[in-house]
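Go through this pair.

…
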Amino acid sequence: MELVHRPATELLASIASHEVSAVEVVEAHVAAMYRYAGAINAFVAMAGITAAEKARAARPGPLSGLPFSVKDNIAVGGAPLIAGDPQRHARGATADADALAVGRVLAAGAIFLGKTNCPWFGGGIETTNEVFGRTNNPYALSHSVGGSSGGEAAAIAAGCSAFGLGTDSGASVRLPAHFCGLAALKPTAGRVPLHGVIDDLGPVGPLRDPRTQIGILARGVADVALVLSVIEDPRGAPPPGLAPVSPGLRVAVLADDGLAAPDADTARVLSAAAAALADAGARVEAAAPPGGGHALTEAVWASYGAGTISYDLLGRWDAFNEAMRRFGERFDVILSPVFPTAAPLHGEVENLTSYTTPHNLTGWPAATVRCGRSGEGLPIGMQVAAHPWRDELALAAALALERALGGYQPPSPDALAATPPASRRCAGVPPQADFQLEANAGWRRR
């Protein structure tokens, strides 16, 4: 497999064994970043020259020499922080300091490549905005990458970045990972610090929006687990590896939530995923969690728009979480689709996120992993949710699915070489622009 399509953990092993150097790994990803800039439009600011320079002196650590990218609503000190907003773009908004999670990744030796595209202030079902235009799916440029961490997903799937950080308030890490065939995790609420995330109202915090979490996207489940160990609170040593699925793991399979019926391809892949967990020793049972989570999420969205949230709504939120807790007494994880279809065409993505939004209300961790493909060859992922603070259990089940069903598969060169559909883009920052990140000096064009 090409260097830029290997999982991050394999790249680390290759660097450690001197099969390749960190410089070679970073330069290969930088080359892909520039090669596919016009086709997928994933990056809104690139630090390719800086990245190549820093790779020569990568600091030691659990992520040493790995190139990574960051969604453009998460702060990287001195780098643009536009979040698809024309006003921030007009004034050249940059971040004063790193988000805590970003700082921890850098301290672990990873090499920053650039910021990736997202909808306006990181909220939306498709990755497009008035400043940078639309991001295209590497598996079929006419199809959506979803939202809102779509630039991240496209960059990693196309081999432009080894892993990335995004945000997830309802589906925004898991949906793009599903559409682009990646592994991902929305962690337990509060496990990863939110410091450094912005939206249209300013800094995001756990009280103002408890549903939002910084999540991880990568090409392999083990990659996700490794990055989690670096950015989580409390800080811990990198895990030796995810444990296999325990015999008797209790799996609830949600085949249809009554709101977004899966199409035939998705239902087929879900059946294969359930069978794979059963073959691994799990006790698999069809069971529907308590309903009403998506409707409650829509009520929460409406309350944010009104600028107030009522005690009645908070009480309903508490009641839903309690119902989910009771359901969880019978099961260890919930296996479900992420979305009822593979990636639709641009402009045709409906907000059918009812499988993902409930886990933002409960704060349960939810992993995504590619388990198959559609008749058109587009990736199809599945979601595995677990009890709070059992992120490793969700990841262990996802790893079993990855090993049984193939996990990430690179997009075909023909798909990436196709002519991208027309997309509006501000001429101020063309996708092939290169920037030099300098200490205390922000970004300047090279």
